[in-house]
Structure formats: structure tokens, C-alpha cells
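Regression test case RT-17, inverse folding.

Input:
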């Protein structure tokens, strides 16, 4: 999990820099990510064959309306013929696909299957046992759910937003899971005790 998070954080950093230049990769998949020197923190994105750049020199070119973009690693609805091919949020969904692949060893293929489940939510689970046992899995699963939304407006707004949420996973929660029952008991004591009721009744 640590290596996957480190790698995807760097990929999101590269995408953020590209998106600032109106450069969208549009073909992220394992074959197009080279881990330089075997270091997870140093991925390199390659193969810009179907990338889009919003420069003035490209304005004369447009993808034919009947042509599907993307790849079979993760097919995005916006890449279907006639879809919206020029939105940076497509790259973010594919970055989430890479994260899913690192954690499961499988390609996500689609954002939502025929039963309405995202790739990491299918049964039996494709996730490795060590991932499911990790204390960050519940929150990590929630991030994947956002990134895998069918509608682009429901995904992360940009690479920086996705990155900041991913980086937060390594910070300790305000209340440890083991202390939750104790905190609930304290809350009930403060709000449901006879003293608390007397204070509430005397407040007016």
C-alpha cells in the first residue's frame, strides 16, 4: 500500500504539471508507466500517441466522431464515440485505475459493472489480503469510489485534490478505531446524564 500510494502521488504530480499546460495523456495503463531504477517514487509516463494538447497548432485536428479513444485497461464512458475527449478528469480516473492495479494485480476494465459495483467492490474481492488488512483501506476504498464515478462532475476536480486526499491517508485519524467506543461512552455520559438533563431544562 505504501509503495502504491507513493507511486500514484508522483503520477498525479506529473499529471497536474501536464494539465497546467493543457496536456492530457488519455492512455494511462501499466504498459505506459516505467518505474525508473525500480523506485516506486520515480515513475515515468510514456507513449503520448493519443495525448491531447490545447495549443493553437492543434486546433486544426479533431478526433473523428466515430472513433473511440483510450484503452482496454480502463474504458471510460467519455471516450466513447462522440464523447468528451478533452477533460483532465479522465486522466484522474485512469490514475485511480493504476492504483487499483497496484493493489489487486488486476485491470479495472470498467468504472461500474452490470451490477453497479466499482472494480474494488466486486465479490469475490480482487484486493490482496494485505491491502484489506491495512488500516487505511476503508478510506482508500472511498477515494477509489469517487475517482471511479461514471459522471466526470462527480469525480475529483483536479489532480491536486485527488493527491491531497491520498496524502491524508498516512495521517493518523483524530480518534483511533480502538478508542471509538470509549469516546461514544464519554459523549453519552455528557449528553444523557441527569446533570446534563438538568442543565438542558434550566437553559431557558
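Golden output:
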Amino acid at each position: 500500500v505504501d509503495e502504491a500510494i507513493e507511486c500514484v502521488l508522483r503520477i498525479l504530480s506529473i499529471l497536474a504539471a501536464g494539465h497546467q499546460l493543457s496536456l492530457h495523456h488519455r492512455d494511462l495503463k501499466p504498459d505506459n508507466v516505467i518505474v525508473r531504477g525500480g523506485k516506486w517514487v520515480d515513475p515515468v509516463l510514456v507513449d503520448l500517441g493519443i495525448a491531447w494538447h490545447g495549443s493553437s497548432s492543434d486546433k486544426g485536428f479533431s478526433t473523428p466522431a466515430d472513433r473511440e479513444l483510450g484503452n482496454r485497461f480502463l474504458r471510460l464512458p467519455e471516450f466513447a464515440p462522440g464523447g468528451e475527449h478533452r477533460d483532465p478528469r479522465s486522466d484522474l480516473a485512469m490514475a485511480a485505475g493504476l492504483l487499483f492495479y497496484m493493489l489487486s494485480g488486476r485491470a479495472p476494465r470498467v468504472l461500474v459493472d452490470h451490477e453497479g459495483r466499482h472494480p474494488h467492490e466486486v465479490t469475490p474481492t480482487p484486493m490482496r489480503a494485505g491491502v484489506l488488512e491495512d488500516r487505511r483501506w476503508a478510506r482508500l476504498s472511498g477515494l477509489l469510489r469517487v475517482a471511479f464515478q461514471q459522471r466526470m462532475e462527480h469525480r475529483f476536480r483536479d489532480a491536486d485534490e485527488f493527491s491531497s486526499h491520498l496524502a491524508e491517508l498516512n495521517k493518523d485519524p483524530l480518534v483511533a478505531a480502538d478508542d471509538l467506543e470509549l469516546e461514544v461512552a464519554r459523549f453519552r455520559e455528557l449528553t444523557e446524564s441527569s446533570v446534563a438533563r438538568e442543565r438542558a431544562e434550566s437553559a431557558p
